[in-house]
Structure formats: structure tokens, C-alpha cells
Structure prediction request, 356 residues.
Amino acid sequence: MKGYVFHGPGHASWQEVPDPGIKDPTDVIVRVDAVTICGTDLHILKGDVPEVRPGTVLGHEAVGEIVETGSDVRTVRPGDRVLVSCITACGRCAYCRKAMYGQCRGGGGWILGHLIDGTQAEYVRVPHADLSVHALPNTLASEDAVLLADIFPTAYEVGVLNGRVRPGDTVAVVGAGPIGLAAITTARLFAPERIVAVDLAAARLEAARQLGADAVADAGEGPEQLIADLTDGLGADVVIEAVGVPESFEMCTRMVRPGGHVANVGVHGKPVTLHLEDLWIKNVTITTGLVDTHSTPTLLRMAAAGRLPTSALVTHTFPLDSMQEAYDVFARAADTGALKVVLGEQRHDAVAVPEA
Prediction:
């Protein structure tokens, strides 16, 4: 088979790799129908995630069909169409018992495309399948479902839930890329008074408006003042950092009001200055985190019911063997207007439910 292989910072290629096989009785093998590229994959290619060893197949998000199962797998069987979660969970360790699957100590957590071969290939081995793949309804197209492997649970759990968005809040989302846009759509579920999107790209700010942002601000034109003007000088109740660079994190800490929350979602590859000389007196809560994907079943039900605008984030589609072109388009989002790119050999359209 072929997969997209990391060869070190700045180098990767679509090439022949060995077919995956069952190694443990809890494994499944999935034939990949649809994958997407994550901002974290770009961080890997930049060298920001040194744990990824050369020779690793990248990718941690996919939709596909089960073709083989280990002897201990109970929840899926060959022929089932599934979502491959970005997080693998053993289900037995102390963290998994608390639904903190991202911190799994039983051979799970973020391992696909990180510590083991990932999903950007024709086939992928998924360990601990009973908690790490989710059967999909026929009403949900692959192109929509694949966005629930990572960005929607990440935005919802690490941004909205960690940030404790409540009715009537002012929420600022710094970074209107895919994660930021997913944070906007899921923050709306809690009826905040207003959501303000901050980004440098006009196209992304327009996308934020279309997905529910009440106001937008150019990151280079003093968005802190806009937040202050909208909140009588107090600042935002919740600020979600969805970029992953020092400047954006520090901007978030300047936007938050006393007693507010800064929820960091971005993947940081460099040290960030934490200005405790200013923040210590403000009762500010700062959270970080890797997604646990405990919300995936709920989000799947919402998407199947048409409650999540997943398809609005897909701007480009490619065949699976156009991985290099897709990476180039995604990496140059400021020029290409890319939000999410989806690759697949077999697109699965949603099946309409007959009227009663």
C-alpha cells in the first residue's frame, strides 16, 4: 500500500509502505476512505514535535471500513463503516476510567501519526478499537464525518468546555482556522451574548461571520480595544487561543477580564511568556489540554441530525494519492483560502432518510 511518510523536518512523501497487520487482539485494520490534514501535521513537518520519528506515516483522522479485527474486538466487525478517532484509549488505565483518554497510560493517547503509523495511507491499524473507532450512520457523509475525528471534539472540549462558556458570556476566539471556526460553532450551543473572532486573514474572518461570529477583528489592528469597547472595559469572559504562537497567547491574556478563562487549544512549538506580574491579581484561569474525545459520540449524533455545520469547513477535496498537493494547499492557507482539505478515493454520500 501507499502512505504519506515523514522523513524529518521539511520532508515527507507519498510512497510504498508495508501493509499493516493485526498485532494485538484489540486491533482493527481500516481501509481508509477519507482523511484530512491537521494543523498538528504541519507542526510535525516543521520539527515542532520531535517525538515523531522519520519513517512514520502521518495522520490521525480518518473515515473508513473495517476489513479485519483482532480476536478481542467486540464493538465493530468487518464491513462496518467507522470514524477513526485521533485519540486511542485502552479503557483500563486510571486516566481512561476518568474519560481522560488523551492521557491514556495503557498504550493509547495521541499515538496515530505520532508514535505509530497513522491514517494518511490506504490502510491503517487502530489499536484498542472498542473505544477508538466509532460506527457511523449512513446519514452522515464521509466528508462531514472525518471532521469529527479531531477538530470538533478538540474545539468543543479543550476550548468551549475547558473555557466554561456560559449563557450571556462574551467569547473571543483568537485564530479563525478550522479549530477556531469549530470553537465558534460549538460555543454557540451555550448561548453566549457575543462571539468575537480574531485573525489576520480576511477570508477566515468572513468564514467566522458565516458560522456565527457576531463581530470580527483583524489581529494586526488592536483587537484588544474592540473587546474592551464591547465589554465596558472589562474584557472577554472566555478567550480561546486557537493559533499556537507566543503572540496570540499573550494577546489572549490581555483580552480576558478579571475572573475570566483563557482556554489554550493551539499547539505551541516555542516557549511563551506568562506575564504573572499582570495576571496574578486578576483571578484568571488558564487551561491547556490534549483532546480526550469523550464528546465524540454526542457530536456524532448532533452531526447526523444536522446540528453541526461540518461541511461548511471543507474548502478543498483531493484523491488520496494527491497528498503532497493537498499539504501544499493547506500549508498556504493565506493564499489558497483553505480551511479543511479532505482526501479520499471513495467518497461516501449521505443516504437520505425516507419520510414517514
